[in-house]
Design a protein that fits this description.
Length: about 290
């Protein structure tokens, strides 16, 4: 199979984000109410999408959960019995990182009745669009208790983490994709004296607790395919670097992830991306890993 088969990265100009945040003339972040209204509308328009809930946050906010299957199932055990690969997509575990949450809404729209709906012939998809609604409401990284949700998946000390894992045990994932944001300056400026150059970082699981065979398979299939597609897209319009551990260390300035991209500003639809580009264009032209 060619490395890039099955992996497609769209140039930024081709991406239309269908989420409440981009429905208004002036884009703004999606509120909890708007999020539920949007998902309820999607569920009404497509039998593939079923809206459910993990439960409630510590401050009593709903934790929406979306099931996407060709059959329109909302029973995790029944979905597991379909025996298709199960993909879990998680957004906004860190409340002050809204991009992942917004992306999950746009993706839910594309999967339920849009251009990606045919993927449900082969996959079952579960989406948690906003894992930390209390943090989102307060623009804080952590949960209402002050605990970092993303550091609690072994301890399971928080209601939000326990609620997530309860459903995950019923419908075990084959793949989990967890979406975060990262700073452009901040720690990058402290460590390396430079701004972060890329708009997207993609990394397979390399934690020592992940079986080595799985990490190797991910490196062989996923990383190679993603990198090839990214390089293809780069040559068109969208500079993108796949980063992975190896040449990067905390003490040495890495050559890939910290550099400045070409100075042409693409027609970015996302204000954060546009802002990042304007940061970058003030720097010198950078390098690319694509050869
Ligand atoms: Zn994060």
């Amino acid at each position: 199979m060619p490395a890039e088969e099955g992996v497609r990265i769209l140039a930024l100009e081709q991406v239309v984000l269908d989420s409440p945040a981009f429905a208004a003339a002036t884009p703004s972040l999606t509120s909890d109410d708007a999020l539920v209204r949007f998902l309820t509308t999607l569920a009404g328009a497509s039998r593939r999408l079923r809206l459910s809930s993990l439960g409630q946050s510590q401050q009593g906010r709903d934790l929406p959960l979306i099931y996407l299957t060709r059959e329109g199932l909302d029973d995790p055990l029944a979905i597991a019995r379909l025996d298709r690969p199960v993909i879990w997509l998680i957004g906004q575990q860190h409340g002050n990182e809204p991009a992942g949450g917004e992306a999950m809404l746009a993706l839910a729209a594309a999967l339920s009745s849009g251009e990606l709906a045919s993927l449900l012939d082969r996959l079952s998809i579960v989406i948690v669009p906003r894992g930390n609604p209390d943090g989102a409401a307060d623009d804080r990284r952590v949960l209402a208790s002050g605990v970092d949700l993303n550091r609690d998946h072994l301890l399971l000390s928080q209601p939000e983490t326990r609620a997530l894992h309860q459903v995950m045990r019923l419908l075990p994932p084959d793949v989990v994709i967890d979406h975060h944001e990262f700073s452009v300056a901040g720690r990058w400026a402290e460590k390396f004296g430079a701004l972060h150059a890329v708009d997207v970082m993609i990394l397979e699981a390399t934690h020592p607790s992940v079986p080595r065979s799985l990490t190797e398979i991910a490196g062989r299939l996923y990383r190679r395919a993603a990198s090839a597609s990214a390089c293809k897209a780069t040559s068109a319009a969208w500079p993108l670097i796949i980063s992975w551990p190896g040449p990067c260390s905390k003490r040495r300035r890495p050559k890939g992830p910290v550099c400045a991209p070409p100075s042409r500003l693409p027609a970015a639809r996302s204000p954060p991306i546009a802002a990042r580009w304007s940061f970058h264009t003030s720097l010198r032209a950078g390098r690319s890993r694509c050869r």
